[in-house]
Amino acid sequence: MRGARAMTRALVLFAHPCAESFSAALHGRVVETLTARGWEVDDCDLNAEGFQPVLTEAERRGYHDAGNITLVQGYVDRLRAAQALVMVFPVWNFGYPAILKGFLDRVFLPGVSFRLEDGKVKPNLTHIRKLAAVTTYGGTRLRALLVGDPPRRCVTRAVWHVCRPDRMRYLALYDMNRASDAVRAGFLDRVSREMKVL
Amino acid sequence: MRALVIYCHPNPKSFTAAVRDTVVAGLERGGAEVRLVDLYGERFEASLSATELTDYEDEAVNCAPVQAHVDALRWCDTLVFVYPTWWYGLPARLKGWLDRVLVPGVAFRMPDVDHADIRPGLTNVTTIAAYTTCGASRWLTALVGAPGRRTLLRGVRAICARRCRTSFAAHYLMDSSTPESRAAHLRTVAARVDRLVGRPARRQAAAA
By residue range, what is the domain housing residue A184? Predict the structure, then answer.
């Protein structure tokens, strides 16, 4: 471990608009467990913060320029301050909710999440040593596998690639629509256990 | 053929706009009826709101916020997506189109007492196509698993007609593209579209 650093700082990205949802319960559990183990938690509820997910024409034109960070400076600072990144989201249509996809589009910029060297993507979020996703699927695991499970690949390959973390967990509850109370409670407990040792 | 083209790029002068023009021209040349949706042009709202999610399964009202899109989706037999690949996936605005328009009762039917799993709702769609550009190489895109392509050509295809045809083309390494590589890609797209309009899609009745 890095002894010089007193406290691990985690950025929690949450992407569900409804407070009564199971995703919100998972989000609550993540924040609570990480805080209880002494981590400093930066809790970013994208819907509550009114995050604008659409990359604009001006942003697209300036994407590779040095000034590309200006419009999302606050989010870039929060990302750069994190040693752990935890994404809590429902899978909709085999992908992230648009508001979370937009976070990648607008904040994971060149010079922030990656550097282009000789046309190759070099990881630039290597201060993030722990990466986790906590998610729910409407469909079954088999259905997700048949489609190729795009959100799992997005986290465990695309986001992993720019962080190169020491530890990564992808926690998924499939077949949400038919999950009993007991199954959901079991998944909440699993999330607690995993967050204690992330 | 009734083709719905969903186009999503912020810059009207982008290469993706040229791909869109190639697609529309090819479809029209083949005699297809074409409806074009320009998501940036109409400032399509990307985020599914709390209200929409509360009404999500209420088929009496869940289409209302996006009725024109639902009507176009029900009208078409061919669904074509033209977009840039960002972070190996769809731009947020296009992902938001899926989130908000592919609602229960339109895109799929929720499980009920007689049916254990989700059932397809877009059985009118017999062809689905994606034409995109990628900053990454073909190799890196394959290594990541091409999540954007899979979301559309496997995920959305799964709720379309049985044996729905697919068509795909991508210009990789977009940041080091040349006028020649871009022209060659437009020819590839034109050829794929010719194939779409030239060969009739297998009908669902024949497939079943």
Answer: 9-197
